[in-house]
Amino acid sequence: MTRINNADQILAKGGFSVGADFTAYGTTIYVTRDINFTLDLQFREGRYKIEIMDLSMSTSGVEIPFIFMNMDFEAYRDYSRKVLTETDMPGTKAALKRLNNDKKARKDYDGQKNHYDQIFPQIVDEIESIDSSLLAYMKSEVKADDDW
Fold this sequence. Notes:
There is one protein chain. By secondary structure, the protein is an alpha+beta fold. The chain contains three helices and five strands. Strands 1-2-3-4-5 form a five-stranded antiparallel sheet, covered by helices on one side. A hairpin with a 2-residue loop joins β3 and β4. α1 packs antiparallel against α2. It comes from Flagellimonas profundi. This is DUF4369 domain-containing protein.
């Protein structure tokens, strides 16, 4: 979706998916995460600026904060408790009980960390690829008959 498209700026939304094995409750499955972003291209006097911002991550439409990737164990447990107490879904009571068990909560945390440690480099690679592609295109010569 393009929100602004004029001679000075193009502002558009984009997205891609990344994935890795995820282990929780003793089961390992491959989980994909959708990464959405806003691309801001600005032009001025023969120069340009590319900015990729507003990164968000989600699974099945549920947004997951990026800060989740960098939480230590206690912050993870506190955050998870907060989210679960605000949610009324099947399994909420069991998940809260599991969070109160140090050994099980630690195992879940380690599974989350491992998953994010696998997908973070994929996110970085994809963002760098988008940036490189845009830079290469911006620096290329446009032919007179190039109608995009």
